[in-house]
Amino acid sequence: MTTVGYGNTAPTTDGGRAMIFTLGFLSILLFAGILANAGGVVTAIVDDGIDRANLSKLNRPWASALFWGSMYYLWMVLIASYYQWWQEDRLEDTIDYADCYWFSYISTTTVGLGDYYLEHGVIVGQDLLVWPLLFLFGFVLLSSFLTKIAEFLASFFPSDKPTFAENLADADVPLFPCLKRHHTARGGVIEDEVEGDGGDEEGAVMKEDGGDEEGAVVEE
Questions:
Q1: Considering the entire predicted model, what is its pTM?
Q2: Distances (CA, A) of 127 to 15, 118, 120
Q3: Who's near 66: CB < 8 A, 6+ residues apart?
Q4: What is the domain-level CATH number for residue 105?
Q5: Residue 124 to residues 2, 119, 121: CA-CA distances in angstroms?
Q6: Domain with 84 in it
Q7: What's the rounded Cα separation, in Å, for the pair 85 and 93?
Q8: DSSP state, residue 9
Q9: How confident is the model at residue 9 (pLDDT cuts 50, 70, 90)?
Q10: Whole-angstrom Cα distance, residue 28 to residue 139?
């Protein structure tokens, strides 16, 4: 679901692989959608708090990118420290801290090369809560950091041109072939007619007068 995939375990039966093809693929879509929005939501909340504290200078693109990059780095340090303790406590094995940080990095970036992973045989109940929370919050911090990095890079290329989404919204092109859009000479009345079976037409008419919306009338 998180696309980490260390590779230490994998399905070998047709049924197991079928679950990965179906449920696994749907889970990845849901996870990607949630993670993509999580970074924007978290950064918006923090930015609003900074503005309310009259510290707007910290919301500059370079400052925000530095802040979220530092937060992500510190969280990887926390994961690495916990992994080092976990290995010593469960497996009585001492791992170099650099390798623990490497494990933290490949896990939070979902690379999951498989050279370091969590041994299934020693996992207990609390690990099913602690490790997912550590990784999930690391994903959110990474998403927030990438969001601010994108804003920082975009600040070097200012543009007054509308975005692709704005162009698409303003384009006089129907989204579906059966949808025909007609504009009056005033541009104040827009009629969308949908051609149905048997030649019947159903239209939705929205009238605007001086910018005020009077309502929507559906004719059958």
A1: 0.64
A2: 28, 10, 10
A3: none
A4: 1.10.287.70
A5: 21, 11, 9
A6: 14-154
A7: 9
A8: S
A9: confident
A10: 14
